[in-house]
């Protein structure tokens, strides 16, 4: 990711933080207390990851795809990113949705036999959805920290489609599409650590899973800085990483992704009620 992207993300976060600085911090705390009442959180966010992936095509590993966040954002056709939690006492549930469709078109000139030259148009589409759901249990809750254990599942679904069109050839060549999905149990923890009795805090999250049939191992981790800017409103800037190591032999060589890493900054706003 280049300096421009970092500058934009940090500028947005600085704007949110400055709003909080002009408000009185008295009575505000980033650590929610457990109680025998329902408590809900909704967190829309923007995650701008780079993607590094080894692909499998017809039983053979092919070259690694390495896409930075700028490339992904420029080719983003649609997307949605949101998380939510519900708590009652020490127990809770959480859900997280990342959905994105990337599309890129290009034109290439080829000359199979002079003087004939053809224009080949390609349109590559990647549809990807990651769903995480888990039950949580609170192990620690005091003025300085909150810690939840979690047990759940993560589902990932990816569809890659390539369409070709050659001028002078009608109809267009049929596109090729490949789809994969897997569900994996996960176990982990999440929470916050309050900084020096202030409204600033360190959010953290980690999980690991396997045993979904096609996955050797998957893990996800987050760490960053956040601030409570008003009662029931937090903002945070974190670095988030997600990793998948899949086994093509478990899918008869039809696995699309093999070793894939998503990692990059995430800007979030959390609304509690």
Q: Compute the CA-based radius of gyration.
A: 22 Å
Output the structural class: mainly beta
Overall average residue pLDDT: 78
H-E order = HEEEHEEEEEEEEE
Gap between N and C termini: 35 Å
How many strands appear in the DSSP assignment? 12
- Top CATH class: Mainly Beta
The CATH architecture can be named as Beta Barrel
Walk me through what this model shows.
The protein has 273 residues and is mainly beta. It has one domain (3-107, 125-164, 179-272): Lipocalin. The chain is built from two helices and twelve strands, in the order αβββαβββββββββ. Strands 1-4-5-6-7-8-9-10-11-12 form a ten-stranded antiparallel barrel. The radius of gyration is 22 Å and the shape is elongated.
What is the topology?
Layout: H1 3-21, E1 38-47, E2 50-57, E3 60-67, H2 69-74, E4 76-88, E5 91-113, E6 116-141, E7 145-166, E8 176-194, E9 200-209, E10 215-230, E11 233-246, E12 257-272
Question: Features of this protein?
Answer:
single chain, 273 residues, Lipocalin, 10-stranded antiparallel beta barrel, 2 helices, 12 strands, elongated
């Amino acid at each position: 990711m280049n300096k421009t992207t970092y500058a934009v993300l940090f500028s947005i976060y600085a704007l949110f933080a400055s709003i909080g600085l002009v408000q009185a911090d008295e009575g505000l705390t980033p650590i929610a207390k457990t109680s025998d009442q329902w408590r809900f959180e909704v967190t829309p966010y923007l995650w701008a990851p780079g993607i590094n992936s080894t692909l499998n095509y017809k039983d053979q590993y092919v070259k690694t795809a390495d896409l930075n966040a700028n490339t992904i954002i420029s080719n983003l056709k649609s997307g949605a990113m949101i998380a939510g939690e519900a708590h009652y006492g020490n127990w809770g549930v959480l859900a997280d949705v990342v959905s994105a469709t990337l599309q890129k078109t290009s034109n290439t000139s080829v000359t199979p036999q002079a003087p004939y030259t053809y224009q080949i148009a390609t349109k590559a589409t990647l549809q990807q959805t990651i769903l995480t759901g888990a039950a949580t249990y609170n192990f620690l809750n005091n003025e300085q920290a909150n810690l939840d254990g979690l047990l759940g599942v993560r589902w990932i679904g990816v569809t890659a489609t390539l369409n070709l069109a050659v001028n002078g050839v009608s109809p267009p060549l049929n596109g090729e599409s490949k789809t994969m999905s897997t569900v994996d149990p996960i176990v982990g923890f999440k929470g916050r650590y309050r900084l020096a009795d202030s409204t600033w805090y360190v959010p953290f999250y980690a999980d690991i899973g396997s045993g979904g049939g096609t996955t050797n191992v998957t893990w996800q981790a987050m760490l960053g800085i956040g601030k409570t800017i008003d009662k029931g409103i937090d903002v945070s800037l974190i670095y988030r990483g997600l990793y998948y190591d899949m086994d093509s032999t478990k899918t008869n060589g039809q696995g699309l992704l093999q070793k894939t890493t998503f990692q990059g900054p995430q800007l979030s706003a959390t609304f509690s009620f």
